[in-house]
Design brief:
Shape: globular
Largest sheet: 6 strands, antiparallel
Distance between the termini: 31 Å
Low-confidence stretches: none
Helix content: 10-25%
Order of helices and strands: EEHEEEHEH
Strand content: 35-45%
Number of helices: 3
Number of strands: 6
Strand order of the largest sheet: 2-1-6-3-4-5
Structural class: alpha+beta
Radius of gyration: 15 Å
Length: 130
């Protein structure tokens, strides 16, 4: 099996967990189990970005907590729309690097997320890890 991040190396590291999702129909949220398949290098990057509360711990930023809907997913970009802005004339979309998100969701899925402003900029590709 190939690494789901780089697609180049053999996936020898398997990370599992659960994620809360809310269906579009407004039904009850549910816990979904997931498993990620990475090569050692991509697994280390994933752990580095996900294991601490912040990618940039020295900044002591408060996390941004939002509910978003997955609008599009390509190998390069994942677009998430903030649900609270969907009725605005110009809803706010977050255009993130798919490789940095660490997981892909089906288009239309609603998820709850929390990132610091610096983490969000990193996910957008506007900064590198320190």
């Amino acid at each position: 099996m190939r690494c789901q991040n780089c697609q180049d190396e053999e996936a020898t590291v398997h990370i599992s967990g659960t994620e809360t999702t809310v269906p579009r129909s407004g039904a009850e949220s549910s816990e979904e189990e997931f498993i990620l398949h990475f090569c050692p290098s991509c697994a280390e990057e994933y752990r580095r970005t996900k294991s601490s509360q912040s990618l940039f711990p020295g900044l002591h930023e408060e996390p941004i907590r939002e509910r978003v809907r997955v609008m599009t997913v390509t190998p390069e970009r994942t677009v998430l729309r903030l649900i609270r802005t969907e009725t605005d004339p110009m809803p706010e979309d977050w255009n993130l690097l798919t490789a940095r998100v660490g997981r892909t969701w089906p288009v239309g899925t609603e998820i709850a997320i929390a990132f610091t402003p610096s983490e969000l900029e990193w996910l957008r590709g506007h900064r590198e890890l320190s």
